[in-house]
Amino acid sequence: MSSGPCSMKPLSSALFLCLALTLTNGAPMHNGDAVAAEAHDHHDWPDRCEGIEFDAITPNEKGTVFFFKGDHLWKGFDGPAHFSNESFKELDDLHNIGHIDAAFRMHNEENTDDHDHIYFFLDDKVFSYFNHTLEEGYPKSITEDFPGVPDHLDAAVECPKGECITDSVLFFKGHDVHSFDIATKAVKVKSWPHLPACTSVLRWLEHYYCFHGYNFTRFNPQTGEVTGNYPKDSRHYFMKCPGFGHGGDYKVPKCSDVKLDAMTSDDVGKVYAFIGPVYLRLDTIRDGLHAFPITRQWKEMGHGLDAAFSYDHKMYMIKDDQVYIYKTAAHYTLIEGYPKSLKEELGIEGHVDAAFFCDDSDNNTIHIIQGKNMINIDLSTTPRTVSQELPLPFSSSDAALCGPDGIKVFKGSEFYEYQSPMILYASRMAPVPHKITSNMMGCQD
């Protein structure tokens, strides 16, 4: 499976709606429309699988990544090219902006009027869009919005605080990088001659990618440092192309068909859902929801798992009667001596349906669900033994997660919500279930 996911929301519903409106209104096609339609059908559409050097790449406010080349763009990691002005109507020859030099999505949570807006750059002009609509007052000169930033840029990318020192935008021109502080508008210029000249740059899932030709190179946004074997062919990772890819062929399921195996969040807030041989990062909604092979992070878990939970900077994964423990601070490195048996590690036996840990300051209890019972185990004791075994108001479950908004227990494509473990095991009847949605899991509603 490619690291780039397939598109989560197909266009079929929109196309059927347009067809229905056309039939209802009975509007005739004028000669000009017919000529335009014929030209559209016979247009020589570019194919990014042939190897394309993109002009710009950026996600929109919903996490869909747009790839730009000339007056065309591609939506997401799969699918054909479209005319750019179908998504951004000013990107056409009539407005003299048939292409763009650079683009990025703003990260500025302190200013909601600017956060998640898309900026396009052409020559010495900047265009600001939100929800695919050009904002009033644009285009402007680049120096008006970004003083100290040069014109005729090659690329641009957002860099949130924590990944850069402050909330910033990195502007690329040749081997020079202009780091623009969003709050102070100060600019620092760096030279990264060791990094290829980027024609576009993408921040995706907290990593930074410099695209050059049809290749990409991953780099550190503060130093420009490149680690690992680069460059790599983008067709293996950022688009679905025949004969390319580096994994399986994950199909996006309908939400009604979703069946989770496990869920957990780690100490830094990363939230994971496990489905068969793949996992999703649920906390990266700004970059869309994407499936990856589990072996990408946990190479020993190639055939999926039964349950997972995080405790004391470690991630516990349960498969059959074995417990695997990974250090979260070391790129999920399996701790020496593991896996161990459930009996040896947690003092229990039998199949585990789900597990969850509520991160309270004085809490060391892991909650294990086995059939109709919830088993509580104090992880601060050695050896670990069962402290409580309590009946539950449902017969079985697939996964569970405890977060700031309470506990979710998943069964098939539905889930129950509880405010605390005490309310969960004190309940006599299961509450009305909620449906899993595309916003939660990236499935198809």
Shape: elongated
- Structure annotation, total helices: 6
- Characterize the largest beta sheet: strand count, sense, and whether it forms a barrel: 5 strands, antiparallel
In terms of DSSP E residues, the strand content is 25-35%
Radius of gyration: 25 Å
**Count of beta strands:** 34
Helix amount: under 10%
Throw out a few tags for this protein.
single chain, 445 residues, mainly beta, 5-stranded antiparallel β-sheet, 6 helices, 10% helix, disordered N terminus
Question: What do these coordinates show?
Answer:
- There is one protein chain.
- This protein is mainly β and 445 residues long.
- Helix content is 10%, strand content 34%.
- It contains six helices and 34 strands.
- The chain has helices spanning 12-25, 31-41, 142-145, 342-346, 421-426, 438-441, and strands spanning 56-59, 65-69, 72-75, 81-83, 102-105, 118-122, 125-130, 133-134, 140-141, 155-159, 168-173, 176-181, 187-191, 200-204, 207-212, 215-219, 232-233, 262-265, 271-275, 278-281, 291-293, 307-311, 314-319, 322-327, 333-334, 340-341, 354-357, 365-370, 373-378, 386-391, 399-403, 406-411, 414-418, 434-435.
- Strands 5, 6, 7, 8 and 9 form a five-stranded antiparallel β-sheet that branches.
- The protein is elongated and about 70 Å long.
